[in-house]
Structures are given as structure tokens and as C-alpha cells.
Amino acid sequence: MKTRIIYGILLFPIVVFLLIFGDIPLRIGLLVVSLVAFTEISKAIWGKIEPITYIGYVFLVFHYFFIEWFMYNFFVVFFALIIINLIYVIASYPKTTPFKSFSYIVLPIYTGVFLSLIYMLREINPYIVWFVFVSAWGSDTFCYFVGKKWGKHKLAKKLSPNKTVEGSLGGVIGVAIISFLYSFLLAQNHIIETHLIFIYTIISIVLAVFSQVGDLVASAVKRHLGIKDFGNIIPGHGGAMDRFDSIIFISPILYIIATI
Predict the structure, then answer these.
(1) In whole angstroms, what is the distance from residue 116 CA to residue 77 CA?
(2) Angle formed at CA 171 by CA 169 and CA 173, multiple of 5 degrees
(3) Residue 108, preceding bond cis, omega within 30 degrees?
(4) What are phi and psi of 158, to 5 degrees?
(5) Could you say which DSSP state residue 110 is in?
(6) For every one of its 260 residues, what pLDDT tens digit does the chain have, with 9 covering 90 and above?
(7) Quick one: the chain helix, strand, coil %, rounded to 5?
(8) For the purposes of burial, counting CB atoms within 10 Å of the CB of 19, is it exposed (0-12), middle (13-18) or buried (19 or more)?
(9) How far apart are CA 195 and CA 52, in angstroms?
(10) Under a CB-based contact definition with an 8 Å cutoff, are residues 108 and 101 in contact?
(11) Phi and psi at residue 73, in whole multiples of 5°?
């Protein structure tokens, strides 16, 4: 527990710095996380780095350097990835199956494109991007401490034995309070209109719920693979995938809401 708290505190100012400065530092930071997360989940699923995986690395690097072009031409890029993977399947069959090859399309998109929406959200509005982290990590923090203190009823015993109903509710309530206070502060400084305080609070509650769903989905994947964590790069937290799974899961939701 102490290690988890210490490294959580050390990670926090780095994230704050990147979100405040944005631009190139944020792109590089997100790229590093995406590369590490992609490596972790690829090794967890297939046990090693296959040659086709390096195409994923190239894709991630180019995606972050030309992020706007990639976003506006996503279907072209997606189609190109499909063609490359199909060629690889034909050339390496039966070693590589269509299902296995398909994962090499999904994984870089999931760990890279979804996470890069943090950058896109900041470009839309440098203030609303914080709701992703408040909802994901705020929920995780409140779930952890409320569950430790008052947790009695298991939330999903087979997926994650340590998660409790009380902790889950504590996470949602905690996010609601923080989001309300943050939204109120933005309204007081005339950054958002007053009526948006409650709207952003409700959005954050929805994000907190989906954050917990994303965490359970990640737990299901790890259970299926027979592993505790995707990696160990962050002591007390696991790997980059373990720490950012809920961020990756809910970023597209807020991005869709922000662009409607």
C-alpha cells in the first residue's frame, strides 16, 4: 500500500506537467505510455514480440507525430493496417492465424489511438481533459480507500476479489464531489457557464462508472491470461497498461461527448 501511494504521488506531478504544457511534451509522454502498454499487452497475450509487432511500433510513432492527419484519415490508416496484416497472415500461415493477426490491428489502436484522444481533448479544451483523470484515477483512489475501510460486499468476486460494492459506490461519489468542485471553480473563473457545473458532474459520474467497467474488463483479460499485472514498470501499480487501462477506456467516451 505504501509503495502504491508513493509512486502514485510521484506520477501525479508528471501528468500535471504534461497536461499543462501540452503540445510536444504531451505527445511524447503519451507515445511512451502507448509503446510500453502495447509491448506489455502483446507479451501478455502472445508471450513474445512477433515481427509483425514492429509495424505496430512504427504505427504508434507516426500516429503521434502526425496525430491530426491520422485522426482525420483514420479509416484510410485502419484499412492500410488490415491490408498489411492480411499479407502477413498469407506469408506466415499457419504460424500466424487470422485471429492472431487481427489482434495486431486492434492493440495499437487501443493502446495508441484511444490514449491519444487525451491530446485531442486538450486541443479542444485544456480544461475538460482533466475530467478523464478525475473520473478514472479519482474513482480508483476512492474505490481503494473506501473499500479498504468499509468494503464488505464483493463487487465481482471471480474477476477482482478485492473490489467491493461499497468501494465502487465510494469511487463514484468521490468523483462526483471532486468534479462538482472543479466545475464550480471553472464557473467562478468564467471558464464555463454556471449551468454546465451539473452537466460536467453528471458526465464525470458516467465516466467513473465506465472507468470501473474498464478496470473489470482489464481484470477479466488478466484472469484469462493467468497474470496478475500486465507489467511491473510502476511499483505498486503494475505496468503502464495497468495504470492507464481506465484512462484508455473512457477517453473515447469524453471525446465523443466533447465533439457532439
Answers:
(1) 15
(2) 70
(3) no
(4) -75, -30
(5) I
(6) 677 778 778 888 999 999 999 889 999 999 999 999 999 988 888 777 777 788 889 889 999 998 888 888 877 777 777 787 777 767 766 666 666 666 777 888 899 999 999 999 999 999 999 999 999 999 999 998 999 889 888 888 777 888 899 999 999 999 999 999 999 999 999 999 999 999 999 999 999 999 999 898 888 888 888 888 888 888 777 889 999 999 999 999 999 999 88
(7) 80, 5, 20
(8) buried
(9) 50
(10) no
(11) -125, 35
Residue (of 38, 43, 52) closest to 89 by Cα position: 52
Task: Indicate the helix (H) or strand (E) that contains 256.
Answer: helix 240-259
How many other C-beta atoms lie within 10 A of the C-beta of residue 200? 21
- Cell numbers 509487432 correspond to 53
175 bridge partner residues = none
Half-sphere exposure of 124 (CA within 13 A, CB side): 16
Measured distance CA(208)–CA(223) in Å, rounded: 22
The identity of residue 173, as a single letter, is I
